[in-house]
């Protein structure tokens, strides 16, 4: 009892005395009583539990998100590394934690440091999903003015801002993409260490393959000394990452400040995935045009050529429209005949295959994903010709239109044709068939697509059909990228780990540059093959390690 | 009793502020605001500034609130326990309904004395690793010093009004309001010192633990780290050192029939 500080209310009684002296204003009984009710409603009755849940009835949280928030608050006392795999909702977990602290009155002043490109998205999500009045930092705002400010590390650490920020006592500090803080000698690291903070969350998708010393540095922001001091740590564990495996004790220590959910251990795993590749053959005229495009060197760069080839594999329309855009006086002679021929092509081989497949599937809802708007329109028309009802879906639709399309799909149409899966997508658990009409080069995008239907709440097995045309660029990608590394079955959950181990930021641009820098499709094939071999090996290595010592 | 029926709560709130409820069916409530409530809730100070300058009475808005989640696709604002609108209303209540002076409504033709009571609704917050609140409603008879708990529950049983009823008169307090409040404070202090406060011990343990780790972390480092160490110790202290905050939600002077204590 002696160690507890007690703060009495010193204002109330003089306020009451003043009001009595001035003969008012006095509350009516009704309003006086309602204010009491209001307090009973907002007060925190228990030390434990998440009150935020009852205040966010419009949100559907996944069990692992709720567990993570509880763990971070109740067991880690508000200082934690959230290290879920991509796509499991770290932002949601962080928002839930912040909301809980704000509801309990423990956090007023919060600073949220995220990559510049994500500032607006964070502001939007905190406001819309959590009713947290977060604002993005603007030039003329001052840092004290707003309670919850979102900004980028670069803005915050600029000299004129830095001094102000360092003097503010923050109740809550959040850093997204915290793996960038792994080096304790950098300015960013120094800056973060200098901030005054009560609670602190570090968000990162890729801590596992970090060197041990990097984990040490992250933990030292949250809980200095938790892993010992720098010298003793380096002496005991070295700077070599392999040593983490020797120490189960160290792993347990790390787990006290870090939560990492993987796809494997979330409940997303109950419904099985059945994945099937559907090979399609071009018709003779289609093949001819394809080869003609492939072998022509002029008038475009390899970069655009590969794009046109991909488009042609998707639909005549997609390729036709892009070529038209390219048309000018100089290349007229070369391009016009090809454009002409594309215009003459019969129906696309894939579209016919889709109709066939839809008839086999029968009376079930199906989502078709394509990379191209033109293909989307063409497919809608083509399906209609065959008496199949469909609705379109694009990432650019406004929220209301998205919901409307989802409803139409649920109640009226058999097929939903979508061009974009990512970001603010919709949840379509009532559907369990998906056709990937063309494959994205970035497997994470594919995972996001599948995530629309294979997610929490899906009760049936999920069927996924991947379309690819033989003897085309699609075959390379399918065989070399997707099939060789068992992408669908094994790799996808670990892909972010693997790529970061290989220091590849963006697989899509990696493949793009392979094509750009190759003079023939044969050369491109070999390079692609090499790339997938590397991915495959890294995957095996990582897996071996994890089998031995468990995933952190 | 926390708010259990949001629709009733809102209806009472707007009625108490003299706003007309235009419609209230199936969880959709339309309210015609008056100027006071428009100013309080609609966040348009420039409009009111401008319209008053022009010598115009102004045109308060209508507000449509949806309390039934199944109707939330309709036009209007879905209001629920987490919605900003409800929090605005709750804050409006908490900020404005702090003080009162009320009289028990009594229908009588004989002279009746009313005793003054100091009623205080007070929240105790226990803040350590985690936080929890407790709410007390205490009443002190300023004539004879009797003290009652759960005052609000008891007051709900009777009728109260802002003006004194006919044939009633008030007895002057023998205990001053200030010393009355001190008596209440003393009772609460007593209550607090009789608890074990395991939460505070846990919190202190965590505090010591982390400070120890911290010292180990900086062991053998040079002097210049001292400032940094102090900063980190401050942070840990701020996060874990146990404290208890007492804050009065609202309170006031209540003139009640002497039979009040015996009947309830």
TrEMBL record, chain A:
Q: What Pfam families does this protein map onto?
A: Helicase_C, SNF2-rel_dom
Q: Does the keyword GTP-binding apply?
A: no
**Helicase C-terminal domain spans which residues?**
353-508
Residue ranges annotated for the Helicase ATP-binding domain, each copy included: 71-225
UniProtKB keywords: ATP-binding, Helicase, Hydrolase, Nucleotide-binding
Lineage: superkingdom: Bacteria
InterPro entries xref list: DEXDc_RapA (IPR057342), Helicase_ATP-bd (IPR014001), Helicase_C-like (IPR001650), P-loop_NTPase (IPR027417), SNF2-like_sf (IPR038718), SNF2/RAD54-like_C (IPR049730), SNF2_N (IPR000330)
**Listed SMART domains:** DEXDc, HELICc
Q: What is this protein called?
A: Helicase conserved C-terminal domain-containing protein
Q: Which organism is it from?
A: Oceanobacillus limi
Taxonomic placement: Bacteria, Bacillati, Bacillota, Bacilli, Bacillales
From TrEMBL, chain B:
Concerning InterPro entries, the annotation shows: YqhG (IPR024562)
Short name of one Pfam family: YqhG
Q: What is this protein called?
A: Uncharacterized protein
Source organism of this protein record = Oceanobacillus limi
Top-level taxonomy: Bacteria, Bacillati, Bacillota, Bacilli, Bacillales
């Amino acid at each position: 009892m002696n160690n507890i500080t007690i703060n009495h209310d010193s204002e109330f009684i003089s306020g009451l005395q003043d009001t009595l002296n001035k003969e008012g204003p006095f509350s009516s009984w009704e309003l006086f009583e309602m204010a009491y009710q209001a307090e009973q409603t907002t007060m925190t009755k228990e030390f434990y539990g998440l009150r935020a849940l009852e205040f966010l009835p419009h949100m559907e949280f996944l069990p692992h998100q709720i567990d993570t928030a509880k763990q971070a608050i109740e067991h880690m006392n508000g200082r934690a590394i959230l290290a879920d795999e991509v796509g499991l909702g770290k932002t949601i977990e962080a928002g839930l934690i912040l909301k809980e602290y704000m509801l309990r009155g423990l956090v007023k002043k919060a600073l949220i440091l995220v990559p510049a490109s994500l500032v607006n998205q964070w502001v939007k999500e905190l406001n819309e999903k959590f009713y947290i009045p977060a604002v993005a930092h603007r030039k003329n705002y001052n840092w004290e003015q707003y309670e919850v400010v979102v900004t980028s590390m670069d803005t915050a650490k600029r000299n004129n801002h830095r001094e102000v920020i360092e003097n503010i006592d923050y109740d809550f500090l959040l850093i997204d993409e915290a793996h960038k803080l792994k080096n304790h000698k950098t300015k960013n690291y120094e800056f973060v260490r200098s901030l005054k903070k009560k609670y602190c969350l570090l968000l990162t998708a890729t801590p596992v393959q970090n060197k041990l010393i990097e984990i040490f540095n992250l933990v030292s922001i949250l809980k200095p000394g938790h892993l010992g001091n720098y010298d003793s740590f380096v002496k005991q564990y070295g700077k070599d990452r392999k040593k983490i495996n020797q120490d189960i004790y160290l792993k347990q220590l790390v787990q006290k400040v870090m939560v990492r959910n993987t796809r494997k251990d979330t409940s997303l795993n109950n419904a099985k995935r059945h994945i099937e590749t559907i090979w399609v053959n071009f018709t003779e005229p289609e093949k001819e045009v394809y080869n003609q495009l492939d072998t022509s060197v002029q008038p475009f760069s390899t970069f655009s050529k590969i794009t046109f080839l991909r488009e042609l594999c998707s639909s005549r329309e997609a390729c036709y429209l892009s070529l038209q855009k390219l048309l000018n006086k100089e290349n007229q002679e070369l391009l016009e005949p090809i454009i002409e021929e594309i215009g003459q092509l019969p129906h696309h081989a894939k579209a016919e295959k889709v109709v066939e497949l839809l008839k086999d599937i029968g009376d079930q809802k199906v989502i078709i994903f394509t990379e191209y708007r033109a293909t989307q329109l063409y497919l809608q028309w083509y399906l209609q010709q065959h008496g199949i009802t469909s609705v379109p879906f694009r990432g650019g639709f406004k929220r209301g239109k998205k919901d409307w399309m989802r409803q139409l799909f649920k109640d009226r149409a058999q097929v939903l044709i979508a061009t974009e899966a990512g970001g603010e997508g919709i949840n379509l658990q009532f559907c369990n068939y998906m056709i990937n009409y063309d494959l994205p080069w970035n497997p994470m995008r594919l995972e996001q697509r599948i995530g629309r239907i294979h997610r929490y709440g899906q009760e049936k097995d999920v069927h996924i059909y991947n379309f690819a045309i033989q003897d085309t660029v699609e075959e390379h990608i399918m065989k070399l990228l997707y099939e060789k590394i068992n992408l669908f079955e094994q790799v996808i959950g670990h892909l972010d780990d693997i790529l970061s181990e290989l220091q590849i930021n963006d697989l899509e641009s990696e493949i793009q540059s392979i094509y750009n820098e190759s003079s023939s499709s044969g050369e491109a094939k070999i390079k692609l093959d090499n790339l997938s071999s590397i991915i495959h090996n890294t995957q095996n290595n990582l897996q071996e390690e994890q089998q031995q010592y468990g995933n952190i | 009793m926390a708010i259990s029926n949001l629709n009733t709560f809102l209806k009472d709130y707007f009625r108490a502020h003299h706003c007309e409820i235009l419609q209230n069916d199936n969880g959709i409530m339309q309210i015609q605001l008056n100027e006071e409530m428009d100013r309080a809730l609609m966040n348009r100070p420039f409009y009111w500034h401008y319209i008053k300058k022009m010598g115009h009475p102004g045109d308060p808005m209508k507000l449509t609130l949806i309390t039934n989640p199944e109707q939330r696709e309709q036009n209007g604002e879905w209001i629920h326990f987490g919605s900003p609108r409800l929090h605005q209303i709750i804050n409006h209540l908490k900020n404005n309904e702090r003080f009162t002076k009320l009289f028990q409504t009594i229908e009588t033709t004989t002279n009746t004395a009313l005793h003054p009571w100091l009623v205080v609704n007070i929240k105790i917050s226990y803040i350590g690793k985690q936080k929890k609140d407790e709410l007390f409603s205490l009443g002190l008879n300023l004539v004879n010093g009797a003290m009652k708990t759960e005052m609000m529950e008891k007051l709900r049983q009777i009728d109260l009004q802002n003006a004194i009823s006919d044939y009633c008169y008030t007895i002057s307090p023998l205990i001053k309001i200030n010393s009355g409040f001190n008596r209440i404070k003393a009772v609460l202090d007593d209550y607090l010192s009789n608890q074990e406060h395991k939460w505070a011990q846990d919190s202190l343990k965590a505090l010591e633990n982390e400070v120890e780790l911290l010292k180990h972390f900086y062991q053998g480092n040079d002097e210049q780290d001292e400032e940094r160490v102090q900063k980190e110790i401050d942070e840990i202290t701020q996060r874990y050192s146990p404290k208890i905050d007492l804050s009065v939600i609202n309170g006031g002077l209540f003139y009640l029939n002497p039979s009040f204590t015996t009947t309830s």
